[in-house]
Amino acid sequence: MTEGLDLHLGVDKGAGFVGRALETALREAIRSGRLHPGVRLPGSRSLAADLGISRGTVVQAYAQLVAEGWLTGTTGSGTRVADLPGPGPAAGAGDDPVPAAARLAVDLRPGRPDLSSFPRTDWASSVRRALSAAPYEDLDYAEPAGLPALRAAVAGYVTRARGVRADAGAVVITAGFTPGLALLGRVLYRLGMRTVATEDPGLGRHRDVLHAAGLATVPLEVGPAGADPDGLAPGRPAARAAVLTPAHQYPRGVVLGARNRSAFADWARREDGFVVEDDYDGEFRYDQQPVGAMQALAPDRVVFAGSTSKTLAPGMRLGWLVVPPALRVPLLETVAELGASVPAVQQLAMADLIGRGGYDRHIRRMRLAYRRRRAELARVAALEGVAAGLHALLPAESAEQERALIARGRRAGVALQGLHADGYWREPGGDRPAALIIGYATPPPHAWSGALEALAEVVQEI
């Protein structure tokens, strides 16, 4: 039980400033690894009794450490050790060593939303309602495509929110985009395809997933209008599938232009191929100019892929594919073969959250919060990419400067990523553009202003 957790804190009560001594002891316990991320600390009353100090002293110490990012406090969940970024890569020859005190606090890596804003109350209510109302048959082995209630809810949502042409019969529920891409890779291989085009720069993890399915990948250069369809012109390596991020290219942040969208759709029809549209953060556009899904141009050739990883949390492991008719049977066969269905309770709760408007309300709330953050970031740094999503590019002069800034951030306790340093380019180096990829959604609200100040210190030279 948490209330019985023995923290072994050496608090010198005779030295005065007992609260500061408690703060120091807790920081050291976290920094040294004796208290691991996620550990729930004793309640303030219990810890005060254990240490023989006032409860108010414990409350103030907890509050201070929450403000500094060492702890997190959530109503109903108590006080826990925060999930702090670990140390960066080991320092090489000529690098300054990373002091232990700098391994903390400011995480500006891209790819995650503000996890502290997860709608716990709405989700818990949806789980209770779903379990109370669901017929027992819904708890049996799940259909490969997913439960009808969630498929219908997703079809309605992506139609009105993203302009997708979909009905429930076209929707397949997955455990997120990456597992969905792994399934699609196997399907494309079964259909005789051996090469897939991917954006360059792009997420290396997705290339790895396609390679694991037996597929080779070829690059599509990304310019101001997004991925260049000329990379698929006759005479280039043969590919009959492409993975794109049309609404907000990852990571460069540009939108796939109308001419390029049409060119990719025409290519897919001509080659009897397919485009996988990764709509990873399409809900978050801040300049009042929403960009609809590419899928509406060619529903018979574009697989629309969405998930809750950026809207709710990656740990939800919940996503969906809107699948053209030609791919549905082989995809469902692959899901069944691998046993890759999503737990029924998760699906039922998500259907309830969408159906009652909780999902839309949460997205609207977070859209406002992220819009403010991006505007504040733009006031201290010259950003590239449209005003959208959960990350922005901060250009650097060279790959060397990019790596130097990441190392400087690491020494200051700021976790950063870059186009060259973190494998977004297929072949890093050379004269390819360099930039930091700033994940401005990641810090919790109480830590955002401090994160912004820390970033400004790190990147002041650019």
Helix content: 25-40%
Major sheet attributes? 8 strands, mixed
Task: Please report which band the strand proportion falls in: under 5%, 5-15%, 15-25%, 25-35%, 35-45% or over 45%.
Answer: 5-15%
* Mean pLDDT reading: 89
The CATH class of the largest domain turns out to be Alpha Beta
Q: Strand order of the main beta sheet, please?
A: 4-11-10-9-8-5-6-7
CATH topology of the largest domain: Aspartate Aminotransferase, domain 2
Total individual domains = 3
Order of helices and strands: HHHEEEHHEHEHEEEHEEEHHHEHEEEH
CATH architecture of the largest domain: 3-Layer(aba) Sandwich
Computed over alpha carbons, the radius of gyration is 24 Å
What's the layout of helices and strands?
Elements (H helix, E strand, L loop, with lengths): L17 H14 L12 H8 L3 H14 L2 E4 L3 E4 L24 E2 L12 H14 L14 H15 L8 E4 L2 H14 L4 E6 L3 H9 L3 E8 L2 E2 L13 E4 L13 H13 L3 E5 L23 E6 L11 E4 L2 H14 L5 H12 L2 H21 L13 E5 L2 H13 L2 E2 L1 E2 L15 E5 L6 H14 L4
Parallel strand pairs: 3-13, 5-6, 5-8, 8-9, 9-10
Antiparallel strand pairs: 1-2, 4-11, 6-7, 10-11, 12-15, 14-15
Helix pairs in contact: 1-3, 2-3, 4-10, 5-10, 6-7, 6-9
Written overview of the protein:
The chain has 462 residues and is α/β, with parallel strands linked by helices. The chain folds into three domains: 2-81, Orthogonal Bundle (Arc Repressor Mutant, subunit A); 100-110 and 361-458, Alpha-Beta Complex (Aspartate Aminotransferase, domain 1); 120-356, Aspartate Aminotransferase, domain 2, CATH 3.40.640. Helix content is 38%, strand content 14%. The chain contains 13 helices and 15 strands. Strands 4-11-10-9-8-5-6-7 form an eight-stranded mixed β-sheet, with helices on both faces. Strands 12-15-14 form a three-stranded antiparallel β-sheet, with helices on one face. It has a two-stranded antiparallel ribbon with strand order 1-2. Strand 5 (195-200), helix 7 (204-212) and strand 6 form a beta-alpha-beta unit. Helix 1 crosses helix 3 and helix 6 (177-190) packs parallel to helix 7 (204-212). The termini are far apart. Mean pLDDT is 89; it is low at 86-104.
